[in-house]
Structure formats: C-alpha cells, structure tokens
Amino acid sequence: MAEIVRFAPSPTGNIHIGNARPALINWLVAMKTGGQFILRYDDTDQERSRKEYADNIAEDLAWLGVKPDRVERQSERMGVYDTVAKKLRDLGRLYACYETPDELDRKRKRQRARGLPPVYDRSALKLTEEQIAAYEAEGRKPHWRFLLDQKTISWEDGIRGSQSIECDSVSDPVLIRADGTYLYTLPSVIDDIDMGVSMIIRGDDHVTNTAVQIQLFEILSGKSPKFAHHNLIINASGEGLSKRLGSLSIRQMREEGYEPLSVAIFAVLNGTSESVQPLADMEALADLFALDKVSRSSSKFDMADLNHLNARILHETDYSVVSDRLSALGVEGGEAFWQAVRGNIERLPDVKDWWSIAHDGLPDDAVEKSDEDAEFYAKALELLPSEPWDATTWKSWTSALKAETGRKGKSLFMPLRVALTGRSHGPELASFLPIIGYQRSVDRLS
C-alpha cells in the first residue's frame, strides 16, 4: 500500500539527529511504498517559531537526501482549526477551563499527597454561570480542554505491537491555550485528516498522546490512520536530545564535514536489528530498513560509532564523488592524492591536513626524527632515486636501503615515515611519496 506520511517539526530550533530519525524513517517508508512524504511545519506557536529555523530544517533535510512531495505550514491554516474547534464546542467535547497554572499545580500536588493520579478532575464542567462571570470579571481567559470518553483505546502499533490506553487515567488534554493559540494535538489531527495521512510514524514519547488523537480522529472523520512509534535516540549519557541545547544538530554535523549518507544510515539503523553499515545510497537504505526491525529500547548515540561509519564510507568513495568538494577545501592533488589518503581520514576536511603535509611542510606537532637514526637518514638520502617517481619508487628505494643497512620491518619503514610526514602512521608511502616529491623529500631527510 502506498503510504502517505508526514514529518511535522516545530521551527523553534535546528533539528538534531533525533529529529532526523523520524524524518528519514517516514521518507523511507514513502519511498519504499511508492507513497508521499509531507513536510509540515508545526508553527502555531508564533512566539517561538522562526522562519530561519524553518529554512534551516528544509536545508538540513535536503542535505540528508530527504525530498518532500509537498510542504505545508500550520500557520496558514488557522481558519480551518477555528472551524473545527467550533464544531467540537457545539458537540460538547471542548469545554472552557479557568484555572491558572498555579492553581492546577496545587491541585496536582494535593492529588499526589492523597495517593491519587494527578488527572484533571473536570471541575470546570461544574462551574455555574455566576462563577464563570466572576472569573471573566477578573480578566481571566479560558483555556479549552477536550472531553475524553473514559474508555479503553487500543491499536496495533506498527513497531510496538498491540497497545492500549485506559483513558480514565489520562487528563482531558488542553487543545487551546488561554491566549487562543492551538497546542499541537488538534491542528495535527485536522491536518492528518485533510492531507490524507495514512500512517503516523513518530517517537515513542507520543504513545500516550495516541489515545487522545484516536478519539479526535473518530469524532472528526470516523476513522484513524495507522500508528508506529519508534525508539528515541539518547546521548552517550543516557539523556534525550534537545533542539534548544543544539544537541548533535544536523547543521553542526554538516559544518564539521560528515557525509550526509553516513548520518542518514546511522540515524535510521542505530537501534534496529540491522547492523550500522556502509551502503551505496538512500535506495539501498530503503531496501534494508523495515519498521519491524526497530527495537523497543532506546537507541544510544555514540560519536565514535558515527566517526567509524563515516570513515568506512569515505574509504570506499570514488574521486568523482568528492572532486568538487576537495577543490572547495583548497586541495588540488587530484585523483592520485585522494586514492592515497582516503583510507586515513574520518571526515572529508581531514584531507587538508594530509595535503598540507604533502604540499606545504611538516605539521607543527610533527614527530621528531631520532638522532640515533642520523646515519640511516644520510644513507636514505644518498640512495633516494631521482625523479620521475611512480608507485614503484618506494619499493625500489626501501629495497636498496634494506640491502645497504640491514634494516627491515618497522626499523626500516618507521624512521622514513616520521621524516617524510611527521607522523607515525598515515597513508601508504608507496602512493604518498610521489605526491611529496623529490625536493621536499630531500629537505625532510636532510
């Protein structure tokens, strides 16, 4: 079945890898089923929503490879929400409440002290006209709650399996704030109905909300879409991620030179029964991923794991894929240079260090040559072949050095690597030596 799915971020900050997870999963499901992916901005909170964040979200999703079939903004649909809210009032399912936040907080504390769940007691339904008039004379504006049917709501979750919520254990949710603005729940349900959303895939922190939304779906359209609640990504300390704190933001990963495919693979496959592994493209990721492979336990994000995956992808990347990006980094060594160094980088900007070593000079923190190897370096300089150099030069040079000095293995190769690169590890010198070139090699061995 071709699924219509959506990703509905609030443009109140830059998205992080935890937000990218539902975006990517929804998009992959749409791709795999031949359906549609809707990017829908939940921007009803006008105080915190910002156009620049919406623009950044679009850019970050495009960088990841996510291509929406349509883009919607809830701020442009307020009249639709007002019409439906009136319908719910007329049905007696949306009722006015006048408690202040402090009064509600004190009420919850009293309930807890008595060993009762802190569920709203529906006292607003018992207000007299005189009491309502008194509140309004004080200048109080009502917030509006949805009157739940206190029944059991059950559904078959696409990831978590059979689920049920006892609605008598859930407070009637506030759908409209005292200032008249809408919370997430009502606009989301209305939009899902109007846009034909057939499956809602989101984080498992929304499981309890599902019972409320199913009741709204049943009242407003007579049916409910399917639901699937995936596990959340937590940081290495076991804490949730936050847009406000900028935790592991996609924009930061872009700026630090991570590959979009590696971020996408990690966001989707981490916390599933599939191993996190290099893949050719997003189509391959879509083929590999399935909702029934998602674990029910939280998915821990470890930057070391992402670095490892990113490195593996770069190690298999052809020069043609990165040539323009290398030029933008000021690296001009061409395909030979890329082939020499790609196995020794974690992120693409790392090539700048190796280009500087090959082309400019040894790094400031270079490993120093040992005085004990002075005679060896003199002999190496004496036997250094004249140019032109190619991939065979290293072997012929070191073979001659081995015959002359009797050195072999690490005692032969390590001093040369240190002298030529200032590093104790790095690219294969058979391919890197011709890039360093004869004169720079002479200078470094001297």
From TrEMBL:
Its EC number is 6.1.1.17. It comes from the Bacteria. GO terms for cellular component: cytoplasm. It is found in: Cytoplasm. Residues 5-307 form the Glutamyl/glutaminyl-tRNA synthetase class Ib catalytic domain. The keyword Transport does not apply. It catalyses: tRNA(Glu) + L-glutamate + ATP = L-glutamyl-tRNA(Glu) + AMP + diphosphate. ATP binds at residue 243. SUPFAM superfamilies: An anticodon-binding domain of class I aminoacyl-tRNA synthetases, Nucleotidylyl transferase. Keywords: Aminoacyl-tRNA synthetase, ATP-binding, Cytoplasm, Ligase, Nucleotide-binding, Protein biosynthesis. HAMAP family: Glu_tRNA_synth_type1. Belongs to the class-I aminoacyl-tRNA synthetase family. Glutamate--tRNA ligase type 1 subfamily. This is Glutamate--tRNA ligase. The lineage of its organism: Bacteria, Pseudomonadati, Pseudomonadota, Alphaproteobacteria, Hyphomicrobiales.
